[in-house]
Amino acid sequence: MVLKIGTIGTSWITEQFIEAILASSAYDLGAIYTRDASKAAVINEKFGTKAAAFTDLDAFFASDIDVVYIASPNALHYRQVLQAIENDKHVIVEKPAVITPTQFEMVYSKLREHPNVRFFEAARHIHQPNFKKIAEQIKQMDRIQGATFVYNKYSSRFDAFLAGKNPNVFNPDFAGGAIEDLGIYPVYAAVALFGLPQDCQYFATKLSNGADGRGTAILRYADFDVTLIFGKNSNSYLASEIYGLEDSIVIDNIAELNSVLYHRNPTEAEQIADLPHENPMLAEVMVFAEIINNFDAHSEEYQKLLMLSQRVNNVVYQLRQTAALSFPADQEK
């Protein structure tokens, strides 16, 4: 079944998502919610689609779409996710899906009330074939002794912040900052590959408005530590690594996964990555469509993804607490 999808948000990430769903042939773009209807017209012209434009969110959710893709500011995700589920729409929401464990529990509660609805957090990198190759290589290593995951990328909105503006991605009122954006990629990788840590600590470098511009997190496991380095106000070209004994895995970028080298020893290395698709969202949208359309065959996979999202939410929230990072939206229940 081709799924009719509606989008919330008109940023570059929404356009990349639309490119992915059209490339997959598993979805049709049926509706666009935006406060400015002219933006929907631009998207339709760019992609050759005929999606209906909505400036009223209630009318959007009442339309005949099957799936909602949510790419609004972080602080708006929670209420929009609940409204989608209440309207029996499947949900694909950009990370962070929600920002507190209490909110995640409410999402679980709503899903129980609407058992035919599927809920996905769009952590694209964990669905890519090269991430699965990393997971398989780890299983073959005799011992894991730690890892360092790096994702530092200078935000296109940081110049505006430096000029005195307060863009959403750096605004605590919208749950902005490094850990709730780029930081989620390395947290997802760590929890997906190694499970829940026993303890964690986040050393945040805060901006003048109280948001974290960058930081370093330590996840403590029984036998090793995982160090996460991430930020939105600088660039880094350091590789990410997983340490074995004499062997190690070296990843060019924990979010992009273009290169994955398995070093058996200091002189012998093998490239285990395949050339990724030009659109990094293609793998995830195909996984989501397969689960929705063939749920009985993929119910276990779905439950694992749901549990992983909840675990990541818990870890990110704990990290924020250790760094005294709070948002007004934390109080929403």
TrEMBL record:
An example molecular function term from Gene Ontology annotations: scyllo-inositol dehydrogenase (NADP+) activity
Domain Gfo/Idh/MocA-like oxidoreductase N-terminal: 4-117
Pfam families cross-referenced by the UniProt entry: GFO_IDH_MocA
InterPro entries from the UniProt entry: Gfo/Idh/MocA-like_OxRdtase_N (IPR000683), NAD(P)-bd_dom_sf (IPR036291)
Keywords: Oxidoreductase
EC number: 1.1.1.371
Protein name per Swiss-Prot or TrEMBL: Scyllo-inositol 2-dehydrogenase (NADP(+)) IolU
Organism: Periweissella fabaria
Taxonomic lineage from the root: Bacteria, Bacillati, Bacillota, Bacilli, Lactobacillales
Gene behind this protein: iolU_2
